[in-house]
């Protein structure tokens, strides 16, 4: 007898119970676990009470008909595959069932083998969707664990754009300062895309000289250059059906930019030293801390390549513009650092430490924050970490006095305006917090910001 322990469970419903029983017996012979019921209500009760892998239902039944059962069943189990059975004269109703989410319809009379084939396909597609959903969730969780925090409006805006373009294959250009987390966002984009099951390949365009980078990206033929003792496929080939992330694209040499443009336009790669071209199916995501339009003006970056890469440009904000995210980022980094250094005495960040972190400019962004937290964990001498232990180069020295003045004497109104604008930028554009720190109300801050400076 077939093993039923892991067999797919199919519920068959037909108001002619002998018909349902006959189909259930036939499916059992093909390795399914099938049960037959005579009414839509009985079928729905089974679906709500126990795991069911697929539903096979007649359309015309007294009481709850097939369309009503289909709707109720998919409300209870959204991904449940449903196959409907119909007489020849009810094809219009069968087509309506497809519109409402049925996988397929079979016109009576049909052969059992036909039902087995369509059930197998429906179950396979359902399994693939579940696996893809699980994988996407896993990758999203991994990205979150890696430090993506988005409470700030600037970071939420970036993630919103990525989430909307993820299902497409459009090239995405991530722009932002070094250490802001462009690589993490590239992984997030891949995890949210239809290519999540495929590879995610990263290459730093600034880390390799031009000849080696060309070989790394496109591969090389055997004997293409000294040391090429074997054929190599290259990173584009390794990223097939996935995503390739070209970091620091602004540093790529102009000659290599031309070859990359050809790859984007024709979707083929030619290994170094080869005459054979290979088609590719890869999504390209790039990142840079450079102003590429300025690089174009300087003759250092191809304008036609820029048009191809920035189909969807996304600005990744520096840490100073997303200070709302800093407490959660710091806490997450602290937890990871303590796990790496279990003998550390540091258990938490002191209130003074967190306030100092909120004031610090973080020129190195999230990467600098991660290094600072690591130092706090390694060098801290008490359960509460002190900001001074982070030894940050731009932090004010202990006991330092207030602002130092130099240059020409300015009218007080202009000083107020300049200082208010500086404070607003330092506090991530948060007007309420800026007004509070300056000891004024928001209306006064708005007046300072709107004042015209003296000539």
UniProtKB/TrEMBL annotation:
One of its GO terms (biological process) is phosphorelay signal transduction system. GO terms for molecular function: ATP binding; sequence-specific DNA binding. The keyword Kinase does not apply. Transmembrane segments: none annotated. CDD domains: AAA. InterPro entries: AAA+_ATPase, AAA_lid_NorR, CheY-like_superfamily, Homeodomain-like_sf, HTH_Fis, P-loop_NTPase, Sig_transdc_resp-reg_receiver, Sigma_54_int. The modification 4-aspartylphosphate is found at residue 58. The keyword Coiled coil does not apply. Residues 9-123 form the Response regulatory domain. Signal peptide: none annotated. Residues 148-378 form the Sigma-54 factor interaction domain. Keywords: ATP-binding, Nucleotide-binding, Phosphoprotein, Transcription, Transcription regulation. This is Sigma-54-dependent Fis family transcriptional regulator.
